[in-house]
Protein backbone atom coordinates (compact mmCIF):
# COMPACT_ATOMS: atom_id res chain seq x y z
CA UNK A 1 0.00 0.00 0.00
CA UNK A 2 1.27 3.43 -0.91
CA UNK A 3 -0.26 6.49 0.68
CA UNK A 4 0.29 9.79 -1.05
CA UNK A 5 -0.68 12.70 1.18
CA UNK A 6 -2.87 15.42 -0.26
CA UNK A 7 -0.89 18.55 -1.10
CA UNK A 8 -2.56 21.64 0.32
CA UNK A 9 -1.98 25.29 -0.63
CA UNK A 10 0.41 27.14 1.62
CA UNK A 11 -1.45 28.64 4.56
CA UNK A 12 -1.01 32.22 5.58
CA UNK A 13 0.70 32.87 8.89
CA UNK A 14 -1.51 33.54 11.87
CA UNK A 15 -3.86 31.75 14.23
CA UNK A 16 -6.87 29.79 13.13
CA UNK A 17 -10.14 29.28 14.98
CA UNK A 18 -9.74 25.52 14.58
CA UNK A 19 -7.01 23.65 16.42
CA UNK A 20 -6.10 20.00 16.10
CA UNK A 21 -3.71 17.58 14.49
CA UNK A 22 -4.94 17.46 10.91
CA UNK A 23 -4.16 18.93 7.51
CA UNK A 24 -7.71 19.55 6.41
CA UNK A 25 -10.72 18.49 8.44
CA UNK A 26 -12.53 17.07 5.40
CA UNK A 27 -9.71 14.54 4.89
CA UNK A 28 -9.21 13.59 8.54
CA UNK A 29 -11.13 10.30 8.32
CA UNK A 30 -9.14 9.09 5.29
CA UNK A 31 -5.77 10.13 6.69
CA UNK A 32 -6.57 8.48 10.02
CA UNK A 33 -7.50 5.19 8.35
CA UNK A 34 -4.38 5.27 6.18
CA UNK A 35 -2.32 5.86 9.31
CA UNK A 36 -3.99 2.95 11.10
CA UNK A 37 -3.23 0.64 8.18
CA UNK A 38 0.40 1.75 8.09
CA UNK A 39 0.86 1.37 11.85
CA UNK A 40 -0.77 -2.10 11.91
CA UNK A 41 0.10 -3.39 8.45
CA UNK A 42 0.62 -6.91 9.82
CA UNK A 43 -3.02 -7.00 10.94
CA UNK A 44 -5.08 -4.90 8.52
CA UNK A 45 -5.16 -3.53 5.01
CA UNK A 46 -7.38 -0.99 3.32
CA UNK A 47 -9.42 -0.88 0.19
CA UNK A 48 -9.42 2.83 -0.68
CA UNK A 49 -12.45 3.46 -2.90
CA UNK A 50 -14.90 3.10 -1.30
CA UNK A 51 -12.94 3.09 1.96
CA UNK A 52 -13.03 -0.25 3.79
CA UNK A 53 -10.70 -1.75 6.42
CA UNK A 54 -10.02 -5.47 5.99
CA UNK A 55 -8.08 -8.21 7.73
CA UNK A 56 -4.56 -8.58 6.36
CA UNK A 57 -4.94 -12.36 6.32
CA UNK A 58 -8.53 -13.16 5.32
CA UNK A 59 -10.55 -15.76 7.12
CA UNK A 60 -11.35 -18.92 5.18
CA UNK A 61 -14.23 -18.41 2.75
CA UNK A 62 -16.01 -21.38 4.35
CA UNK A 63 -16.53 -19.36 7.56
CA UNK A 64 -18.98 -16.60 8.42
CA UNK A 65 -17.58 -13.13 7.83
CA UNK A 66 -18.27 -10.46 10.48
CA UNK A 67 -18.70 -6.90 9.17
CA UNK A 68 -19.39 -3.76 11.16
CA UNK A 69 -19.11 -0.02 10.75
CA UNK A 70 -20.54 3.37 11.53
CA UNK A 71 -19.50 6.96 11.72
CA UNK A 72 -15.91 7.93 12.39
CA UNK A 73 -15.08 9.82 15.56
CA UNK A 74 -15.40 6.72 17.77
CA UNK A 75 -11.87 5.42 17.24
CA UNK A 76 -10.53 2.85 17.74
CA UNK A 77 -14.04 1.45 17.07
CA UNK A 78 -14.69 -0.02 14.50
CA UNK A 79 -11.55 -0.13 12.34
CA UNK A 80 -9.38 -0.92 15.35
CA UNK A 81 -11.39 -4.10 15.97
CA UNK A 82 -10.57 -5.69 12.60
CA UNK A 83 -8.39 -8.75 12.95
CA UNK A 84 -8.10 -12.35 14.09
CA UNK A 85 -11.05 -13.41 16.24
CA UNK A 86 -13.11 -10.28 15.77
CA UNK A 87 -14.15 -8.29 12.67
CA UNK A 88 -13.32 -9.21 9.10
CA UNK A 89 -14.12 -5.73 7.80
CA UNK A 90 -15.11 -2.29 9.02
CA UNK A 91 -16.81 0.43 6.97
CA UNK A 92 -15.98 3.88 8.38
CA UNK A 93 -18.37 6.68 7.52
CA UNK A 94 -17.52 10.34 7.84
CA UNK A 95 -17.48 11.78 11.34
CA UNK A 96 -20.69 10.80 13.15
CA UNK A 97 -22.25 9.72 9.82
CA UNK A 98 -23.21 6.21 8.77
CA UNK A 99 -21.43 4.66 5.79
CA UNK A 100 -23.55 4.41 2.66
CA UNK A 101 -24.49 0.96 1.29
CA UNK A 102 -21.65 1.08 -1.29
CA UNK A 103 -18.71 0.46 1.09
CA UNK A 104 -20.75 -2.15 2.93
CA UNK A 105 -21.32 -4.06 -0.31
CA UNK A 106 -17.65 -3.59 -1.20
CA UNK A 107 -16.71 -5.16 2.14
CA UNK A 108 -19.00 -8.12 1.41
CA UNK A 109 -17.32 -8.65 -1.96
CA UNK A 110 -13.88 -8.46 -0.36
CA UNK A 111 -14.85 -10.90 2.41
CA UNK A 112 -15.84 -13.82 0.23
CA UNK A 113 -17.88 -16.40 2.08
CA UNK A 114 -19.96 -19.43 1.29
CA UNK A 115 -21.24 -19.40 4.89
CA UNK A 116 -22.74 -15.91 4.85
CA UNK A 117 -22.13 -12.51 6.42
CA UNK A 118 -23.13 -11.14 9.82
CA UNK A 119 -23.56 -7.36 10.13
CA UNK A 120 -23.24 -5.97 13.67
CA UNK A 121 -24.42 -2.38 13.97
CA UNK A 122 -25.20 0.13 16.70
CA UNK A 123 -28.77 1.28 17.18
CA UNK A 124 -28.82 4.47 15.11
CA UNK A 125 -31.17 5.21 12.24
CA UNK A 126 -28.49 5.64 9.56
CA UNK A 127 -26.63 2.46 10.50
CA UNK A 128 -29.79 0.35 10.54
CA UNK A 129 -31.01 1.84 7.26
CA UNK A 130 -27.81 1.54 5.21
CA UNK A 131 -26.75 -1.88 6.45
CA UNK A 132 -30.33 -3.01 5.85
CA UNK A 133 -30.27 -1.70 2.28
CA UNK A 134 -26.98 -3.48 1.69
CA UNK A 135 -28.31 -6.77 3.04
CA UNK A 136 -31.47 -6.55 0.98
CA UNK A 137 -29.47 -6.17 -2.23
CA UNK A 138 -27.39 -9.28 -1.64
CA UNK A 139 -27.96 -12.64 -3.26
CA UNK A 140 -26.09 -14.38 -0.46
CA UNK A 141 -27.24 -15.02 3.12
CA UNK A 142 -26.69 -12.19 5.60
CA UNK A 143 -28.05 -11.29 9.02
CA UNK A 144 -28.09 -8.00 10.95
CA UNK A 145 -27.63 -7.71 14.70
CA UNK A 146 -28.54 -4.34 16.21
CA UNK A 147 -26.88 -3.47 19.53
CA UNK A 148 -28.88 -1.13 21.79
CA UNK A 149 -26.97 -1.42 25.06
CA UNK A 150 -27.66 2.02 26.55
CA UNK A 151 -29.26 1.71 30.00
CA UNK A 152 -32.05 4.31 30.01
CA UNK A 153 -35.23 4.92 31.92
CA UNK A 154 -38.41 3.82 30.17
CA UNK A 155 -39.39 7.42 29.44
CA UNK A 156 -35.99 8.45 28.08
CA UNK A 157 -36.36 7.18 24.51
CA UNK A 158 -34.95 4.30 22.51
CA UNK A 159 -31.63 2.89 23.80
CA UNK A 160 -28.62 3.74 21.63
CA UNK A 161 -25.61 1.63 20.77
CA UNK A 162 -22.58 2.21 22.99
CA UNK A 163 -19.38 0.47 24.08
CA UNK A 164 -21.21 -2.81 24.69
CA UNK A 165 -21.07 -3.31 20.91
CA UNK A 166 -17.44 -4.31 21.45
CA UNK A 167 -18.54 -7.33 23.50
CA UNK A 168 -21.01 -8.47 20.83
CA UNK A 169 -18.41 -8.12 18.07
CA UNK A 170 -15.84 -10.05 20.09
CA UNK A 171 -17.95 -13.10 20.94
CA UNK A 172 -19.49 -13.29 17.45
CA UNK A 173 -16.05 -13.00 15.88
CA UNK A 174 -14.71 -15.81 18.06
CA UNK A 175 -17.65 -18.05 17.16
CA UNK A 176 -17.16 -17.40 13.45
CA UNK A 177 -13.43 -18.11 13.78
CA UNK A 178 -14.29 -21.52 15.19
CA UNK A 179 -16.57 -22.33 12.25
CA UNK A 180 -20.02 -21.64 13.68
CA UNK A 181 -22.81 -21.31 11.12
CA UNK A 182 -24.48 -17.99 10.28
CA UNK A 183 -27.51 -18.97 12.36
CA UNK A 184 -25.29 -19.92 15.29
CA UNK A 185 -23.26 -16.71 15.07
CA UNK A 186 -26.42 -14.62 14.91
CA UNK A 187 -27.90 -16.42 17.90
CA UNK A 188 -24.73 -15.86 19.94
CA UNK A 189 -24.59 -12.20 18.94
CA UNK A 190 -28.26 -11.71 19.82
CA UNK A 191 -27.74 -13.34 23.20
CA UNK A 192 -24.70 -11.14 23.85
CA UNK A 193 -26.60 -8.00 22.81
CA UNK A 194 -29.39 -8.87 25.24
CA UNK A 195 -26.86 -9.43 28.03
CA UNK A 196 -25.04 -6.10 27.90
CA UNK A 197 -25.94 -2.64 29.23
CA UNK A 198 -23.96 0.61 29.27
CA UNK A 199 -24.22 4.10 30.73
CA UNK A 200 -22.12 7.20 30.13
CA UNK A 201 -21.33 10.49 31.85
CA UNK A 202 -19.37 13.52 30.62
CA UNK A 203 -17.72 16.65 31.97
CA UNK A 204 -17.30 18.27 28.55
CA UNK A 205 -18.67 17.98 25.05
CA UNK A 206 -16.54 17.23 22.01
CA UNK A 207 -15.27 19.40 19.14
CA UNK A 208 -16.19 18.61 15.55
CA UNK A 209 -13.10 19.30 13.41
CA UNK A 210 -15.01 21.27 10.79
CA UNK A 211 -16.69 23.50 13.39
CA UNK A 212 -13.85 24.38 15.73
CA UNK A 213 -16.20 24.75 18.70
CA UNK A 214 -17.88 22.46 21.25
CA UNK A 215 -21.04 20.66 20.18
CA UNK A 216 -22.66 21.96 23.37
CA UNK A 217 -21.57 23.73 26.55
CA UNK A 218 -21.53 22.37 30.07
CA UNK A 219 -21.63 24.93 32.85
CA UNK A 220 -18.81 24.98 35.38
CA UNK A 221 -19.46 22.37 38.03
CA UNK A 222 -22.10 20.57 35.95
CA UNK A 223 -22.18 16.96 34.70
CA UNK A 224 -24.03 15.49 31.72
CA UNK A 225 -25.63 12.15 32.60
CA UNK A 226 -26.68 9.43 30.16
CA UNK A 227 -24.59 10.68 27.25
CA UNK A 228 -24.36 8.95 23.88
CA UNK A 229 -21.36 8.67 21.57
CA UNK A 230 -22.20 11.31 18.97
CA UNK A 231 -21.39 14.46 20.86
CA UNK A 232 -24.98 15.02 21.89
CA UNK A 233 -26.07 16.35 25.26
CA UNK A 234 -26.90 13.85 27.96
CA UNK A 235 -30.47 12.88 28.64
CA UNK A 236 -30.06 14.49 32.09
CA UNK A 237 -27.66 16.88 33.78
CA UNK A 238 -26.86 18.04 37.29
CA UNK A 239 -24.14 19.24 39.63
CA UNK A 240 -20.76 17.53 39.77
CA UNK A 241 -20.57 14.62 42.19
CA UNK A 242 -17.64 12.64 43.65
CA UNK A 243 -16.68 9.52 41.68
CA UNK A 244 -18.33 7.06 44.09
CA UNK A 245 -21.63 8.94 43.79
CA UNK A 246 -21.42 8.96 39.98
CA UNK A 247 -20.67 5.25 39.86
CA UNK A 248 -23.50 4.48 42.28
CA UNK A 249 -25.95 6.25 39.97
CA UNK A 250 -24.58 4.60 36.81
CA UNK A 251 -24.33 1.06 38.18
CA UNK A 252 -27.84 1.22 39.67
CA UNK A 253 -29.24 2.29 36.31
CA UNK A 254 -27.40 -0.51 34.50
CA UNK A 255 -28.56 -3.19 36.96
CA UNK A 256 -32.13 -1.94 36.66
CA UNK A 257 -31.92 -2.15 32.85
CA UNK A 258 -30.50 -5.67 33.05
CA UNK A 259 -33.86 -6.96 34.33
CA UNK A 260 -32.21 -10.04 35.78
CA UNK A 261 -30.93 -11.30 39.10
CA UNK A 262 -27.22 -10.76 39.91
CA UNK A 263 -24.84 -13.10 38.15
CA UNK A 264 -21.24 -13.12 36.98
CA UNK A 265 -20.17 -10.47 34.58
CA UNK A 266 -17.56 -8.66 32.55
CA UNK A 267 -16.97 -5.01 33.48
CA UNK A 268 -15.80 -2.65 30.73
CA UNK A 269 -14.72 0.87 31.67
CA UNK A 270 -14.29 3.00 28.56
CA UNK A 271 -12.82 6.45 28.03
CA UNK A 272 -14.73 8.65 25.61
CA UNK A 273 -11.74 10.51 24.20
CA UNK A 274 -10.20 12.85 26.76
CA UNK A 275 -10.28 10.89 30.01
CA UNK A 276 -6.82 9.75 31.20
CA UNK A 277 -6.05 6.22 32.43
CA UNK A 278 -5.51 7.61 35.94
CA UNK A 279 -9.22 8.40 36.13
CA UNK A 280 -10.41 5.36 34.16
CA UNK A 281 -8.84 2.95 36.64
CA UNK A 282 -10.29 4.92 39.55
CA UNK A 283 -13.69 4.62 37.86
CA UNK A 284 -13.15 0.87 37.41
CA UNK A 285 -12.41 0.42 41.11
CA UNK A 286 -15.50 2.38 42.12
CA UNK A 287 -17.76 0.56 39.62
CA UNK A 288 -16.39 -2.83 40.67
CA UNK A 289 -17.20 -2.07 44.31
CA UNK A 290 -20.71 -0.94 43.43
CA UNK A 291 -21.55 -3.97 41.30
CA UNK A 292 -20.12 -6.31 43.94
CA UNK A 293 -22.29 -4.70 46.61
CA UNK A 294 -25.28 -5.25 44.33
CA UNK A 295 -24.50 -8.98 44.21
CA UNK A 296 -22.61 -9.23 40.91
CA UNK A 297 -19.43 -11.30 40.58
CA UNK A 298 -17.02 -9.47 38.27
CA UNK A 299 -14.65 -12.09 36.85
CA UNK A 300 -13.65 -10.46 33.56
CA UNK A 301 -12.60 -6.87 32.94
CA UNK A 302 -11.23 -4.51 30.34
CA UNK A 303 -10.26 -0.85 30.85
CA UNK A 304 -9.19 1.65 28.20
CA UNK A 305 -10.25 4.00 25.46
CA UNK A 306 -12.18 1.91 22.93
CA UNK A 307 -15.38 3.71 21.86
CA UNK A 308 -14.96 7.48 21.85
CA UNK A 309 -16.94 10.59 21.06
CA UNK A 310 -13.99 12.47 19.53
CA UNK A 311 -12.43 14.39 22.44
CA UNK A 312 -15.27 14.21 24.97
CA UNK A 313 -14.15 14.17 28.60
CA UNK A 314 -16.38 11.30 29.54
CA UNK A 315 -16.48 7.73 30.73
CA UNK A 316 -18.89 4.89 30.07
CA UNK A 317 -19.26 1.69 32.02
CA UNK A 318 -20.61 -1.53 30.57
CA UNK A 319 -21.73 -4.69 32.33
CA UNK A 320 -21.93 -7.91 30.32
CA UNK A 321 -23.79 -10.84 31.89
CA UNK A 322 -21.68 -13.94 31.32
CA UNK A 323 -22.43 -17.63 30.97
CA UNK A 324 -19.95 -20.41 30.22
CA UNK A 325 -20.19 -20.07 26.44
CA UNK A 326 -19.92 -16.27 26.36
CA UNK A 327 -16.99 -16.38 28.78
CA UNK A 328 -15.19 -18.91 26.61
CA UNK A 329 -15.77 -16.83 23.47
CA UNK A 330 -14.58 -13.66 25.20
CA UNK A 331 -11.40 -15.45 26.34
CA UNK A 332 -10.68 -16.79 22.84
CA UNK A 333 -7.64 -15.40 21.05
CA UNK A 334 -7.99 -11.98 19.45
CA UNK A 335 -5.44 -9.90 17.59
CA UNK A 336 -6.57 -6.52 16.32
CA UNK A 337 -5.06 -3.02 16.47
CA UNK A 338 -6.99 -2.01 19.60
CA UNK A 339 -6.15 -5.01 21.79
CA UNK A 340 -4.97 -8.60 21.70
CA UNK A 341 -4.69 -11.63 23.93
CA UNK A 342 -4.63 -15.42 23.79
What count of domains describes the coordinates?
Answer: 2
Write the element-wise H/E pattern from the N-terminal end onward. Answer: HEEEEHEHEHHEEEHEHEEHEE
The average pLDDT is 93
Do you know the CATH architecture of the largest domain? 3-Layer(aba) Sandwich
CATH topology of the largest domain: Rossmann fold
Helix content: 25-40%
For the largest sheet, list the strands in their spatial order. Answer: 1-2-4-3-5-6
Distance between the termini: 29 Å
Cα-atom Rg, whole angstroms?
20 Å
- CATH homologous superfamily assignment of the largest domain: Dihydroxyacetone kinase, domain 1
Major beta sheet summary: 6 strands, mixed
The fraction of residues in strands falls at 15-25%
CATH class of the largest domain reads Alpha Beta
Give the helix tally.
Answer: 8
Poorly predicted tracts of residues: 1-17
Gross morphology: globular
Give structural notes.
This protein is an alpha/beta fold. It has 2 domains: 30-183, 3-Layer(aba) Sandwich (Rossmann fold); 196-321, Hypothetical Protein Tm841, Chain: A,domain 3. The chain is built from 8 helices and 14 strands. Helix 3 (125-136) links the parallel strand 5 (117-122) and strand 6. The longest helix has 17 residues, at 277-293. The two termini are 29 Å apart. Mean pLDDT is 93; it is low at 1-17.
Q: What is the gist of this entry?
A:
The chain is an alpha/beta fold. The chain is 30% helix and 23% strand. The strands form 3 sheets. It has a 6-stranded mixed sheet with strand order 1-2-4-3-5-6, sandwiched between helices. Strands 9-8-7-12-10-11 form a 6-stranded mixed sheet. Strands 13-14 form a two-stranded antiparallel ribbon.
Amino acid sequence: MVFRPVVYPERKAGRTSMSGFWNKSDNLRDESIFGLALAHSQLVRIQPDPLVVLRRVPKAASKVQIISGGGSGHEPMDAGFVGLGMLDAACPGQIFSSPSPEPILSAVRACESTAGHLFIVKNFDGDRLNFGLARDSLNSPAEIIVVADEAVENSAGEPRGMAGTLFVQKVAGAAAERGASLQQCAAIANRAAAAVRSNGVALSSCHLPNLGRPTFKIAEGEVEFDVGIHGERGRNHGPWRPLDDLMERMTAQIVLAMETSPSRGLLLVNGMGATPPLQLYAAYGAAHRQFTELGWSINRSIVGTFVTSLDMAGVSITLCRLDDELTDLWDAAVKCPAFQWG
